[in-house]
Design goal:
206 residues; 55% helix
């Protein structure tokens, strides 16, 4: 059985768990990271030298980096919708997954850290203002992308939607000012209608 190392409230672990839910894949999850520790142990570092979560073990194969794990599981499934069969659609999906990891989440993460994990008296207003501006700019890119389509790529839900939707969920959960982004909100509501999203992602932030 697939083994997933990582705490269930981690944004990166949630990508993998949501993907598994969409695919109907059974798995055994081991709490690791943050309050659960384990990631600095020699045993875990042998699986993932970065000491981060998630890491998966699929038989004798180990893999880390959440978006790569989602790609791997989607491709292994043979689902041509989740892992687009058309090469241009697939690389379009790859692009949006990389964009989430290199643009959207790096913009939002400092805001999340300040507003969720940092006591109010210790928050840095400069960090908050900059992160709020950058994360809004990223959200506006998504809103524009979704102006003429129901999903990020192709005509159906795919692996591209998973990292972006989880990040958008955290953006909407923060106590910040947000202008109306109707295309983004419409798409996000469709994501929240998915059973696996509700089961995995809609948990208290931490």
């Amino acid at each position: 059985m697939l083994k997933i190392w990582g705490r269930a409230n981690s944004i990166n672990v949630q990508k993998v768990l949501w993907c598994c839910g969409e695919l109907g894949l059974p798995y055994d999850r081991i709490d690791a990271g943050h309050e659960f520790g384990l990631t600095n142990t020699p045993t875990y570092r042998a699986l993932n030298p970065n000491g981060l979560v998630p890491t998966i073990e699929d038989g004798d194969f180990q893999l880390w980096e959440s978006n790569v794990i989602v790609r791997y599981l989607a491709q292994q499934s043979g689902r041509g919708d989740l892992y687009p069969a058309d090469v241009r659609t697939r690389f379009d999906a790859e692009r949006w997954m990389d964009w989430q990891a290199t643009v959207f989440w790096p913009a939002l993460r400092p805001l999340f850290i300040e507003l969720v994990r940092t006591p109010a008296v210790k928050r840095d207003a400069t960090v908050i203002a900059r992160a709020e501006s950058l994360s809004l700019a990223a959200a506006q890119i998504l809103d524009s992308r979704l102006s003429d389509r129901g999903f990020l790529v192709g005509d159906s839900f795919s692996m591209a939607d998973i990292p972006a939707a989880i990040t958008v969920h955290r953006w909407y959960a923060l106590d910040i000012h947000r202008p109306e982004l109707p295309n983004l909100y419409r798409w996000y509501r469709h994501m929240t209608d998915r059973q696996s999203f509700r089961a995995v992602v809609m948990t208290p932030l931490s």
